[in-house]
Amino acid sequence: MGRYEGNPVWDDVVPIPQEEGEGALAQIAYTDEYVEAMGYLRAVMAAKEHSPRVLDLTEHVISLNAAHYTVWLYRASTILALDIPIDKELEWMNEVALENQKNYQIWTHRQTLIDHIFPTLSSDPAAAQAFADAESAFMAEMFEEDAKNYHVWGHRQYIVRKFNLFDSDAELKSIEALLHEDVRNNSAWSHRFFLVFSNPAYTTAGSRATEHDPKIPDAMIDRELAFAQAAAHEAPQNQSAWEYIRGVLRKGGRELATLEGFAGEFVRIPEGGEEDIRSSHALDFLADAWSEKGELDKADMALRLLGEKYDRIRKNYWDWKRGLLRGAKV
C-alpha cells in the first residue's frame, strides 16, 4: 500500500495512470512512490480541484522531482485559489531553493506569487521595503552557496525592477561587497552595469547596453570608471573589469583612447627591448584604442603579440582582427 492508496483522505480520488509512450522517455524507470503520486496529481488536475490536500500532494511531488514545471504551475493556481498567505509559501520555497540550486521553476513560481501580491505591497511603502529587504537577505543566503547562480541573479534583476531599487544604496553596496569578495564574479559585474545603466531616473528608455546614452551624467560615468579601474589594478588579468570599462565608455560616448594612459600602465613595449605585459586584456584594449586613433601599425603589433605570445589559444581570432586592420590600411 502506498502513501495515497488506502488513505481515507484520498478515498474519493481515482488515480489516472501515465499513458504509455514511445521512444526514450518511455524507458525512464520511475519509482513506485513517484508513479503513485503523479497518478493522484493527474486526477485532481483533471477535476480542477484546489484544496489543502492538493497543496500537500504538490509538495510531495516537488520533493521527488523539483523540476516538474506543471506541478509548480498547478501549485501556484491552488495557492491563489485558496488565498494562502504568500509569506508562508515563500518560507517553504526558501528551503526548496537551497536544496535545488539550479532549478529555475522555483524562481518562476516565486515571481508569480510576488506579481500577485505586488499591488497590495505597492500601496504600503514600508511593507514593500520590508519585503524587498527580505528577498535580498534570502538571495544573499543563496549566494553564500553559489555566488554565480544565474537563476538568483535573474531574480535579483526582477526584484530591482519590481520594487524600483535602482537608487538603493544598500543594493549598490551589496554588489560592491560581492565584488570585493571575488573581483572575478562576472555575474556581479553584470548586475552592477544593469543597476547603474538601466536606472530610469537618468537613463533613456529603451537605450541598449551597447550604445551611448547622453542622459547619463558625466559624474556617473567617472564614478563607474574609477571603480572598474581600481578592480583592474587589483586583478589585471580579470577580463570582467576590462569589459566593464569598455561598456562604461560606450554608455558615456567616450573613446577608448581616453584611457590609453591607464591601459598603458599594464603594457610596456620599448622599441629596443623585451616587452612587459601584465594584462593581455590591457593589450587588447590598447589594440582597439590605437585602431580607433588610426595608429594601425601599433594596433597590428599588439594583436600579433596577443596571437603569438600572450593569448595563443585564440591565435586565429587575433589573426582575424589583424586581417581587418590590413583591410583598413588599403
Compile the SSE list and pairings.
Layout: H1 32-46, H2 52-64, H3 69-82, H4 86-99, H5 105-122, H6 125-145, H7 150-163, H8 169-181, H9 186-197, H10 218-234, H11 239-252, H12 260-264, E1 267-268, E2 276-277, H13 280-293, H14 296-310, H15 315-329
Antiparallel strand pairs: 1-2
Helix pairs in contact: 1-2, 2-3, 3-5, 4-5, 5-7, 6-7, 7-9, 8-9, 9-11, 10-11, 13-14, 14-15
Descriptive notes:
The protein has 330 residues and is mostly helical. The chain has helices spanning 32-46, 52-64, 69-82, 86-99, 105-122, 125-145, 150-163, 169-181, 186-197, 218-234, 239-252, 260-264, 280-293, 296-310, 315-329; strands spanning 267-268, 276-277.
Poorly predicted runs of 5 or more residues: none
> What is the radius of gyration computed over CA atoms, rounded to a whole number of angstroms?
27 Å
Mean pLDDT equals 93
The total of helices stands at: 15
InterPro entries: Prenyl_trans_a
GO cellular component, one term: CAAX-protein geranylgeranyltransferase complex
Protein name: Protein farnesyltransferase/geranylgeranyltransferase type-1 subunit alpha
Keywords: Magnesium, Prenyltransferase, Repeat, Transferase
Task: List the keywords.
mainly alpha, two-stranded antiparallel ribbon, 15 helices, 65% helix, prenyltransferase, Prenyl_trans_a, EC 2.5.1.59, Protein farnesyltransferase/geranylgeranyltransferase type-1 subunit alpha
Structure, briefly:
The chain has 330 residues and is an all-alpha fold.
